[in-house]
Input
Amino acid sequence: NAGVTQTPKFQVLKTGQSMTLQCAQDMNHNSMYWYRQDPGMGLRLIYYSASEGTTDKGEVPNGYNVSRLNKREFSLRLESAAPSQTSVYFCASSRTLDRGYGYTFGSGTRLTVV
Amino acid sequence: AQTVTQSQPEMSVQEAETVTLSCTYDTSENNYYLFWYKQPPSRQMILVIRQEAYKQQNATENRFSVNFQKAAKSFSLKISDSQLGDTAMYFCAFIRIQGAQKLVFGQGTRLTINP
Output
């Protein structure tokens, strides 16, 4: 049982380049999320998808777009990368009806924008 | 909006000691869940313990326990008999039961267990 799978694990981009972070879960969860982790700031929500076909902005959505491709997959796109987007990115998924279950996280993507 | 605050950026204790990590939160909700997540150097986020706000009894999981003070909006994590493998970042997190399902995290506490 893979859980939540993120690709790639590491990436270096030049300023202005674009890329898509991929995320897939095999737990039949309805809800999926993208967070970024920066030192001293914890994890901050970028976008989330409460169910297939819906997406909503989180706390720090500027510079990002998302696509909920199907129930399993939720991708994060950086259209024109900036050094301020250097961070560790986490995808997560959860059940909708049991919030006490918590989230299941992927292993993260370390992105460096130079 | 809900906020979660961890006021201890770093802590360090000797192996086998007991350590307590602090967390406070702000919400107008009456029903919610609180969590502690552990992030070791591998970067994986691991759920350590959860607490339901409407349960007065403090949650425990082996060497991990919480002190949940609802009126004070405080949720501390106690690690007993600390082990080298407890070295990690620890995040406190909050989620409301009704409304938008978004897990809100604190800033994190870096805990080092020394041999």
About this structure: The longest strand of chain A covers residues 31-38. Residues 48 and 56 of chain A are 5 Å apart (CA to CA).
